[in-house]
Amino acid sequence: MASNLKQSRPKPKKGKINWARNQEADFFANTVKLYRQGKYDSDSFRRFRLQHGAYGTRLADDYAMVRIKLPAGEIYPNQIERISQLSEQFSIGSAHFSTRENIQLHWVVLEDVSEILRGLSEVGLTSREACGNTVRNVMCSPLSGVCPDEEFDATPYALATARFFLRNPMAQNLPRKFKFNFTCCEKHGMVRMVDVGLIPQTREQNGTTQKGFKIFLGGGLGNKSFVGHQLEEFTPEEDLLYTSIAVMRIFDRLGDRKNLARNRMRYLVNDMGWEKFQNLVLKERAIVRATQSVVTRLNVDDTPNEIKRPIRVSDESGSTTIDGYARWLKGNTFKQKQQGYYSVFVTLEAGDITSNQLHVLSELIQDFSSEGLARAGFSQNISLRYVHEDDLPYLYTKLLSAGLAKSGSLTMSAPIGCSGTTSCNLALTNSHRLAKEIQRKFLELKLDEDDDLRDSSIKISGCPNSCGQHGIATIGFFGGGGRVDKDMYPNYMMQLGGRSDGETMLGISCLRVPAKRVIPVILKIIDVFKENKKPDDDLKSWIHRVVNGIDDSKIKSVNDLKEILTPLTLPPSKTEDPDFYADYGSDTSYHTKTGKGECAA
Amino acid sequence: MSQEKVVKTTTDIDSLRSEIRDKSVRVIDVRREEDYKKDHIPTAVNLPLANLLSDDSPERVQKLVNSMGIDDETSVVVYDDTFGALASRVAWTLEYLGHSDVSLLETTYGNWKSLGLEKDDVIPEIQKKEHSINLRPEILATSDYLESAKEKKGVILVDNRERLNYLEQHIPGAISLPYRTLASSDKILRPKEDMKRLLDNRGISGDSEIITYCGSVGTLSGLAYYALKSVGLPNAKLYVRSFKEWKSLSKPTEKQEDANYWDLSAE
Ligand code: SF4
Question: Are A59 and B257 within 8 A, CB to CB?
Fold first, then answer.
């Protein structure tokens, strides 16, 4: 049967845009050689390496992490297949989906990075400007084009923006990294937590419908996080590029290039005050508009993707009564605005996927997605869209046999964990493993099926930087060390009530929770919520009231919650419970050790 | 003109098929006996790797080789269905005995079959031959040899296990070149130019002495031995007892500390 499928499979669809430049692989290889021969100083080399998408690795100079950009999250079957091979050859046999629609290969020998670049360029992918002080991967909601609440599909605009800035001289040496997020609607994606966030909208003018965007500027998560401001009521599409260029020019000119800790654009906006910044942008845009040559336009390719349900010789349809199907359907699929079609989100553990699973996925996209490609998801996962509803049970059985049918991808039971001590130089805790542990517990307790929890989220960072996006989680954690006399233990600050939708706010600090007590504390919060909730509350709305001090139940504030939770967090003595003093994934006592940061995510 | 015979690392499919037709080759299938009995490349004899490893002393190997109808002049091609690693270990053993004309089939038996090429379940009648013993210690590394050699400048020690195993524990000074790196999508070894560039990037070039090792019996590192040979590197050795022996002798090892890399794996 498998061979039947193989024979009937037409040629896979390939990406329309080639993001790669072949010569960059050789150039990288030669530069590494020069660096090794001491002909390139380490600071310039680091800048060069980051520009090409290779990060340093935790306490190990000879390894890199290669971050592959997926502009607008799009990835094609041949590209997934190639990443499968590369992860097996040059990395650890697994690849990692990040929170910003990148795929990362970790623990790559520095001298092998060029081989990865070469392999990527053969399938049109690049890691160029995935790191460093550049325009990072341009994100787009994985639901753009299929979301019932969107005004129009922002994907072509995201791709055009990515194309415009990639290798563009004006984006090679910014004060700091710069991020664009396009989304479909208010509910999905993050537009207020990024340098430039964009929601498509339309307006009627003189009887015609005009396309445009709501643009948010100056938001971002970090050691210090800020919520973005809306630039104006409506930015027409022809002003999109002018606005982007204007914002970047201001940032380029005025951004803080000295103080690494305060050089994201949000600090500039904050220091200057929003109104002043806003005026500056509008003025600068007028100048850009007047002085840019007419050719400076976004190259928006609006031709719709061909939607064609793959025809398979096999008439096997799978059974809807198979174990776990209903649960999976509920937690992993999204009904598209297109009649009869679903988007399927594949649950991963903290974004990790084996090379073999990638290989299977590449085939499943061809066999099940009527658009013939996949999109990186919201939360370290991947989605197959345009799956016909009749094909869902069969897809489920296929995912099941590849170990990819875990439930809960779109629920609270799929926490985000940054790479933490698995590879990041700055990490204080193993946030990555903690996310996996929480997921396992949630699935064991079937909490993915609980409607009250569905829209809430858990996000974990391994240090106060916010790669794990803890600030916008319903329950967020960031790592640090705790201490009893001389003995250290892994510890997390817990923040509650963060969100990134229309009511965006940052989580409020509640209390420190030792790593090995995080799961009991989360479960306790759920218990307390169940006891105190109103009939149509969900966890997110309840916590929202608690952190804003407007709940009228027994729990009136974060402090009330803290009081209930504190007993769970008290450290036992080391002889009583040595495990408490070791982080997940290690059997020796915890100690903190960090290297030089390059802001790895 | 050089008198030296060109060293052939792999034999391509078409050449092997014509050599089989000409009866000018001895083909060795190193898969398990039951797999071999089902079907194999026509005229191939069976030498399961486990059988060889049960005693790979030169005298025993000589007997095995004789019984497969191989003398010093016989052209031998070895294949497996395990990306060439098991075949490599057998081929290396023949080389060590002193047999010079041995190469690997460029692809696996699985791929051979999927191409629809001829197969057979006939077990050939073999006429015994006499092979000499002419050991080639220069392609073998023992633990004692390795211990002293790795301190020498210009000696490169290559670990062919998977990256995570390497990070967890390896012989001090070794570099990591996982066996998966060596293959292309349909061949057990990358094309020569490709392989050369890859090795060159890693500083594996010139006349350095290069010693390969893997987890236990020298299969993955056997493949690496042939990868080095395929680009004409003259001075490769196989640490045939590999990391398993190294550890059992409690020799020193090295580890990538303070990082939880295993937790990045989705296995
Ligand atoms: S720097 Fe980012 S990836 Fe590293 S531990 Fe901190 S939050 Fe995680």
Answer: yes
